Amino acid sequence: MTPPSIHPMSPDKVIDYFEHDADVGIVGRGATLEQAFENAARAMFAIITNIDAVVPKTVITVEFEETDPELALVIWLNHILGTARQHGMVFNHFQLRRTHNHWLGELHGEPWRDNLERGTEVKGATLTMLSVQSTKGIWEARCVVDV
Hints:
With 147 residues, the chain is α+β, with helices and mostly antiparallel strands. It is built from two helices and eight strands; from the N terminus they run E-E-H-E-H-E-E-E-E-E. A hairpin with a 2-residue loop joins strand 7 and strand 8.
């Protein structure tokens, strides 16, 4: 599987990528902070597999506490990766809710199967080029993932 192409950023895309030396920069955008995080998770899993081929038949819940939105992004992404490894799953749909410092997410996906295309392994989300901000009503969450 060819990793998602890296190209000049487009503010209209809900998932996007940016150049980084040996790793991959991911971007998620949305009308809310939570939607931006959900789309960052989609961007990360689009590196791992063709997320359009994943059947979202299993739902796993994850939760964590964090006050800082930037650190919450890294925790969210690493929590998802850990859950995927623990259960041998791949995910393609994400829902996240936040109440103050409490984050509750739903991961929709299925166990890896032979005919799912395997892309590039993502080892983890990093603090490199970490940014979470809102501009003109659009939230953008970005970081570099270690591949």
